[in-house]
Amino acid sequence: MPDLPSTSKDAVQAMPPHPRRGRGWIARAALFFAVVFFTVIVVFSFVENSLVFFPARYPAGDWKPAGLGFEDAWFQAADGTQLHGWYVPHSNPSAVILFAHGNGGNLTGWAEDMRAIHGRVGASVMIFDYRGYGRSEGSPNEQGILQDARAARAWLAQRAGVDERDIVLMGTSLGGGVMVDLAAHDGARALVLQNTFTSLPEVARFHFGWLPTGMLMRNRLDSAAKIGRFHGPLLQSHGDVDTIVPYTLGKKLFEQANEPKQFVTLGGFHHNDLHSPVYFDVLRHFIHHLPARETKSAPAGEGNWTRPGQPS
Hints:
The chain is an alpha/beta fold and 312 residues long. It folds into two domains: 19-49; 56-306, Alpha/Beta hydrolase fold, catalytic domain (Rossmann fold), CATH 3.40.50. 38% of the residues lie in helices and 18% in strands. It is built from ten helices and eleven strands. It has helices at 9-14, 19-52, 111-119, 142-160, 174-186, 200-207, 213-216, 223-226, 247-256, 277-288; strands at residues 54-55, 71-76, 82-88, 96-100, 104-105, 124-129, 168-172, 190-194, 234-239, 261-267, 301-306. The strands form two sheets. The protein has a nine-stranded mixed beta sheet, sandwiched between helices. Strands 1-5 form a two-stranded parallel sheet. It is globular and about 80 Å long. The protein starts with 8 loop residues before the first helix and ends in a 6-residue tail after the last strand.
């Protein structure tokens, strides 16, 4: 009589797991991680604006900064949003400058820059708050803040008595993306960028590399795709230890720009460091050597400036 299969406890334990059970565990784990990942993506899409924009509404900030004589500017965006800015006129301006600040705070945080642009550079300058910032109404988003910049430029041109294309556009960080869009579509006498990125998704990828930010983000400010449409003098600067907008993204944007252009490396500077008077000397030289209006020739070059005490 043939031996029957063993049914002992040891024999049962030695049996390999059923292949369907193994695949089932893997499928459940994959489903769990897919649900978690999808949930994170959904949450990210809902909180995106709060990750991009950090407005400080009035009365936050110093609204009466010492040593800065300004006029309050009130104007409307194309969609009717009421906006606010400061205009600092100069009796004999070397240029008329529109300044777009970064994504945090409000215009009061740039009072020191306004004093330097007015006093050291010798220019008339206007800074404005995007919708939802300072005393401006509404809530910020990409299309909205681009409208706000156009409305600010129109107000400034009328107040200063110049053509809109004769205004120098200057932006820092997020504001650089705003000014690139304005210059690319409508032109400008010159473009000045500080710590500016190629696009918002690329900055987000630097901070959230595990998320498909390129597909997810609605706010893009794709300056790398736009800056090639601007044909005019460019002055771009970036801190080489910037951990918010990497230095490499600033250089990558610069590579996409047309001549004449100049890049200044700020040695030892982080993203939110105050600019040294030496930087404003560089800016003054750039502004005072701009070609006459309606011309396109200007010297190009690349320079470096290092904070005293910092390695180059």
